């Protein structure tokens, strides 16, 4: 992590209030969410998780049909519609898994005049259900869902539409924050590292463990 330069975001006032935020493991506790998601599906929890991990490793993201095919290898009587109905219902119950400081942070951003853009990745339908079920969608100017994580930097470039990249970005994954910082060197990039098992970036402007730490830095950036 490089030394924070609090002057960098003060140069262009017209762009000071734009922030892009990730959803999973930044606003939403995916560890507790997935524990609920994969429980009660009619197959052992550990096997349901194993199939999810295997699918992620082979396809790079969640996809309902391949997941169903992984499940059926050991549970051939599992019905597709039943599994999808259970998963879809659970994906809408994300409010209980929102981190305790997430809504407070979004309220602070809105009160302070920030334009909040959500940039998430994964299966479009699943992510949309999770976001809407969280109760946080009302805070976002727009919701952007890209198929793969590495596409976030390009999606931000599309949203900027030729404007200079003087914005704030928050994500938890090293490869993503590094990629965004490379594509948009003028941006102020946070890595949200709530989990110790997350690989730490040394390219971002700041690494934080919660939104309280992020707010303290943002206040100094715009003092």
Structure commentary:
- The structure is a single chain.
- By secondary structure, this protein is α/β, with parallel strands linked by helices.
- It folds into two domains: 8-28 and 95-221, 3-Layer(aba) Sandwich (Rossmann fold), CATH 3.40.50; 31-91, no CATH class.
- Helices cover 43% and strands 13% of the residues.
- It is built from nine helices and six strands, in the order βαααααβαβαβαββα.
- The protein has helices spanning 30-37, 45-59, 64-72, 80-91, 102-111, 124-134, 152-160, 174-183, 211-221; strands at 18-21, 115-121, 142-146, 168-171, 188-192, 206-208.
- A six-stranded parallel β-sheet has the order 3-2-1-4-5-6, with helices on both faces.
- Strand 2 (115-121), helix 6 and strand 3 form a beta-alpha-beta unit.
- Helix 2 (45-59) packs across helix 3 (64-72).
- The protein starts with 17 loop residues before the first strand and ends with a helix.
- The model is unreliable at 6-13 (pLDDT under 50).
Short recap of the structure:
This protein has 223 residues and is an alpha/beta fold. The chain folds into two domains: 148 residues, Rossmann fold (3-Layer(aba) Sandwich), CATH 3.40.50; 61 residues, no CATH class.
